[in-house]
Amino acid sequence: MKKHTTKYTTQNIAFISDHASPLASLGGVDTGGQNVYVAQLARFLAQGGYHIDIYTRWDNSSLQQVVNWLPGVRVIHIKAGPVAVIPKEELLPYMTEFSKNMISFIDQHNLNYELIHANFFMSGLVAAQIKEMLDIPFAVTFHALGHIRKIHQGNDDKFPKERVQIEKDVANLADYVIAECPQDRDDLIQYYHVSVEKIVIAPCGFSEQEFYPVKKHVARRILKITGNEPVLLQLGRMVPRKGVDNVIKALGKIKAMGKRARLLIVGGESDHPDPSNCPEIARLQKIASENNVLADVYFAGRKGRDLLKFYYAAADIFITTPWYEPFGITPLEAMACGTPVIGSNVGGIKYSVIDGETGALVNPNDPDELAEKVTELIFNNEKLKEMGQNAIRRVNKYFTWEIVALKIGKLYKKMIQANREKAIAAQAELKNPIKAA
Question: Which residue, among 368, 337, 367, has the nearest Cα to 359 in the 3D structure?
Fold first, then answer.
């Protein structure tokens, strides 16, 4: 196996995103924030002059192995196990094959990468194996940490028990670990003993081209939303940890207070919500019925990204109360549309949402507190308008993908420079072994 050469023509970067392809439809169990992160970061890095190859597992036989997706961005499908959709919790046994086939692809096409940016722990495992074989440095964004997941999900966590040790090994072997928020950094230090010097904080972002303010009455007309009741929105993956049940229970408490509101829930495995196809929707419908709000909750199903801004803009408040959240992109998208956010006081949400300014922070799994906060804000139009304006200013100042790409690009430049200096030193030693000694 040949080592990675020191041929520098363009700044070629390899992304690895084992289960989260930028080509996938969003809203399902295994499609969400990581897909968006990989897609948007690659897009904006390419606009800045990088050439990005995104390696992801081949799970659809109708897709070509190499897809020229955007200018400067290719998606390369790597065979690892059956060419079929497999839950990400079951993919670890196929990562050795992923590494082998990715290395073969690199060799066969004589590719030279300055560095690898791995996304998720299994991608980090692949990157570590490739670093050993081809001497390519890598950075890793974990997107979620197994230890934190285990704290909140316990025995419901279906990932292999080796996950946490793999994460520790990957963090140790990585040149840098990218934390998405201060809480992520603190968790890496406390539970994984990663040195502060190795951690760089770079958040997730939102696309200004996709998410921007739309007049509420226009958005509601487009979505055919009628009536005068306040509209609450929950949008994201349909999995228990996202706490959608908490929002439904809060809606029941609001109704019991004599107040009325409607809840739109966007997400799921298909465009038309089907409880038989999405057990989480079936569970949530049962909870809505038990809380006497089934008629006040509308499950909209999975929606294309071109429609999401209208859902955000149509809502009076966007609510997201997960048990934990490594970062959370949907609050940024909502705020970019001028909609205040009530979110869990956890992880990245407490970093992006400023309590009392761009929305409010509440404890997860506390429908009483959530109901109280909603009723405090939902009928205060002046306060909501002020929060919406604050939200627009905040996300455009700190959280555009262009800003995120600049931060990541700064890290890449540092890594590339260090690797080039290392290569030059190694070449000098080969030419002058006596002098080097």
Answer: 337
